[in-house]
Amino acid sequence: MKLHFSRKMLGIPYLVFLIFFVVIPMLVILFYAFTDKEMHLSFGNFIQFFSDPTKLSTIVYSLVIALITTAVCLVIAYPVAYILARSKMKRKFVILLLFVTPMWINFVLRINAIRELLGWIGLLGEANYFNTIFGMVYDFLPFMILPLYTTMLKIDDSLYEASSDLGAGWSTTFTRITLPLSMPGIASGITMVFLPSMTNYVISDMLGNSKVTIIGKFIYEYFGTNWHMGSMVALVLLIVVFLSTWLTGGFREDETVRGANL
Amino acid sequence: MTKKRIGALTLAALALTPTLLFTAGCSGEETIVLRVFNWEEYIDEGGEGSYQYDYEVNEDGSAPPIIEDFEVWYEETYGTPIRVEYSTFGTNEDMYNQLQLGDTYDLLCPSEYMIMKLAAEDYLQPYTEDFFDPDIEENYYIRNVSPYIREMFESNRINRKDENDSSTWSDYAAGYMWGVTGFVYNPEFVNEDELAALGWDAMRAPQYRNRVTTKDNVRDSYFVALAICYRDEIEALDMSAPDYGTRLAEIMNRTDDETIARVEEIMREMDENIYGYETDTGKADIVSGRIWLNFAWSGDAVYAMDLAEAGEDEEGNEAEQALLNFFIPEECANLWFDGWVMPKGANTQAAQAFVNFLSRPDNAVRNMYYIGYSGVIAGEEVLEYVKDCYSVDPEEYESEEEYTKYDLSYFFGDTVEEGTAWFYADTVQATSRQLHAHYPTLEVTQRCAVMDYYGEEANEAINELWSRIKSETLDTWAIVVICVGIVLVIAAILLLKFGNKIDFFRLPPKKGYKRVKQQNC
Fold first, then answer.
1. I need a surface site. Which of B31, B59, B147, B270 has the fewest CB within 10 A?
2. In this structure, what DSSP letter does residue B354 have?
3. How many contacts (CB atoms, under 8 Å) link A and B?
4. What is the pTM (predicted TM-score) of this model?
5. CA distance A121 to chain B (A)
6. What's the pLDDT at A134?
7. Which residue of chain A has the CA closest to B461?
8. Where are the domains of chain B?
9. From 3.30.470.10, 3.10.490.10, 3.40.190.10, 3.20.20.30, which CATH number describes the B178-340+377-470 domain?
10. Domain limits at A226?
């Protein structure tokens, strides 16, 4: 027997990983979501989920929290990334590091520190939703800055030169060159902030004193009592994930987007 | 290499494996493996902070974990080597999930309601008869368990659903730790008389708005709301009546629809008034003065009071104020316990030996010292330990009001010499500090109720209630509006992305221009 070693075989470990840790678990979730306690096929969970205002409200609240978090992150990160990418500063990587270093510290520690700070200011327990969003913005900001920075870095300088040669002002240059060419970075940043902020219930528990319930916490609680409903909630979340990835262009195969995905 | 040769090699390897395994197994005597599944930080783990370390019990200064001592003891006593595979869980539900996933254990340590659930679902194996024989030297559990706990275990049926099943807790479970629930409070901000008048209703009291916390778990919050809901009925009960306990337990385990509706109303008011739900931040928050009242299990309460007395919070920073008190509401408190149970198929001999070893009074003291909760084991060593901690000399006090005779004979009973289970304690200690939480008096335990397993249906209803309380619920119209909005946004994005491919949405060409068919590139 002759073993043919082709480059395709390098993908086997990844394939195995994919099957065991992504495909099979998803099938298990699908199975649990559409079965009842006696393991019979049932749409009971589905109907119960979409007829229960509590569950739908939780989804809506999570969506709103995630949207605000993403918007705030974008507003903060865009100018930072722009300045970093465009400036001729000698040591700009230091500034970048300042934003990125917190990522290397475990986020539970950071959230604990934020909790103490908020308690010291007096906001803890007073403004639960604000605290939650504040914590999420703090936590996810680097994930917005980095893709924006890398896409903007790649914009060819000659484009800016051409634009200025042709007499475009700052605002025209921005709307015609910077913004369109950084779109892949924006899309990638949004996916990386929006999705985790829908489920990161450690932040909402610690900074919102467990009074803020987001969909991640919901799934966690259901898996303590009723796996079938928990799987249904997880499935709905998966659909939201797919939808938003698709809308922000995560499935497109062109090179600009790929480059921005870290 | 041909296929044939690979096949032959595999066969040879397969043929060899059993021999190899066999020889490996024979190198020593057969080692028993005991798989124990316990709460996190719920056993003496040796080293700094352990009883043996702090009191230099061993001459060489060593302080091994209690499990290592068990392995040595077991081999010495029964002549077979044993190895304990010890793993931990964080909540009763986590433990239950592990069991359902097919993990096998010899010994588990769930709380009372989970024990009842496991029993109702036929997971458990009863203790063998010789476990209850007090004449066997090694039966430390039955020889030292507190008569109070023993009575409770023998008088409560484990399976409430099946009328024909008359087995009691003691058939399936051996106690480990027990305690009550109450409030840890900061006397600087909370007036004791006011709190006594409010009881559990302090959760809803406007003067403690944003200064009181409860546990982030449905059963504890439900219990509190029940106590508020039926307070009048509880207080109308005759405490001296023989069926007081049963009637109290009946009230505190109600799960009918009307009760759930009333409780929901109360829990909603609690939700609006409290500072937050916590799982473990409460201790640090009350010590630092951020909150004034903290719903606590007695062991955690002792821990928080100790911290406050040491003038430090968990991180070792100096706290702004020093002393905290413990208060058990007059109307009713929750009596809880964690106990050892054996799942079906467990190695009963080794599992029971483990329970017995932990129940040897000196080991019970070690565990109590390490984890700070109160064990179910009585006996001379335990009494001595309690006296060491709390007994005072009346001659050092100026007035008689400052010390109290503290009687624990209900707990120690005949496990100690008659008439010795009492001591003088500091009055403050006895009525509102660690001693009050650690070993409540008989009078306090009488107004406590155990929370049963509610049964599948009621459990589901209460969990739904919990999720309604914890989430903000929008009006239906708001949900509809938002859903329509989301659909519109998605449609808009899709139009922006693909709209130029559909003629309908394209602007008409400027005058003099012609539309050229789009080329695919």
1. B59
2. H
3. 87
4. 0.84
5. 12
6. 95
7. A225
8. 1-29, 30-175+343-351, 178-340+377-470
9. 3.40.190.10
10. 53-260
The predicted-structure confidence for B299-316, as pLDDT tens digits, reads as follows 899 988 988 887 655 555
State the total domains in chain A.
1
CATH 3.40.190 for domain B30-175+343-351: yes
- Could B473 and A223 be called an inter-chain contact, meaning their C-beta atoms sit closer than 8 Å? no
- The answer to whether residue A246 sits within a structural domain is yes
Instruction: Give the Å distances, CA to CA, from B233 to B110, B195, B244, B265, B270.
Output: 31, 20, 12, 18, 20
B93 touches chain A (CB under 8 A): yes
Do the Cβ atoms of B473 and A57 come within 8 Å? Answer: yes
Pick from A1, A206, A221: CB nearest B467:
A221
Whether A210 sits inside 8 A of B473 (CB atoms) is no
Q: How does pLDDT run across B109-153, given as a tens digit for each residue?
A: 999 999 999 988 889 999 999 999 989 888 999 999 999 999 989
Residue in A with minimal Cα distance to B493: A247
pLDDT digits (tens, 9 = 90+) for B361-389: 999 999 999 998 999 999 899 999 999 99
Q: Tell me, what's the pLDDT at A95? A: 82
Query: Across all residues in chain A, what is the average pLDDT?
Result: 87
Residue B183 and residue B329 in contact, taking contact as beta carbons nearer than 8 Å: yes
Tokens describing residue A131: 């605290």
Alpha helix segments (H runs only) across chain A: 12-18, 24-33, 44-51, 53-86, 92-100, 107-121, 128-153, 157-165, 170-173, 179-199, 201-207, 215-225, 227-247, 255-260
User: Letter for the amino acid at B192?
Assistant: E
Query: For A1, which of B2, B216, B459 is closest by C-beta distance?
Result: B2
Task: Select from B2, B471, B475 the residue whose CB has the most chain A CBs within 10 Å, as the one to mutate to test that interface.
Answer: B471
Let me know if residue A132 belongs to a domain: yes
CA distance B517 to chain A (A): 23
In a domain, A47, yes or no: no
Query: pLDDT per residue over B495-517, tens digit each?
Result: 877 766 666 666 667 777 776 66
Mean pLDDT within A167-173: 88
Contact B248, B447 (CB under 8 A): yes
* Contact: A1, B460; criterion CB under 8 Å: no
Interchain CB distance below 8 Å, B486 and A221: no
DSSP assignment of B198-234 equals: HGGGGGT-GGGTTSEEEESSHHHHHHHHHHHHTHHHH
- B11: pLDDT strictly greater than 60: no
DSSP letter, residue B145: B
Contacts of A247 in chain B (CB under 8 A): 490, 493-494
Q: How far is CA B497 from CA A7, B53, B437, in A?
A: 36, 70, 66
The residues near B145 (Cβ < 8 Å, ≥ 6 apart) are B174, B175, B359, B376, B377, B378, B415
Is A53's CB within 8 Å of B473's CB?
yes
ipTM: 0.82
Strands B107-108 and B32-39: parallel
Domain CATH for A248: 1.10.3720.10
Q: Which chain A residues have a beta carbon less than 8 Å from that of B290? A: 119, 124-125
CB contact under 8 A, B91 and A224: yes
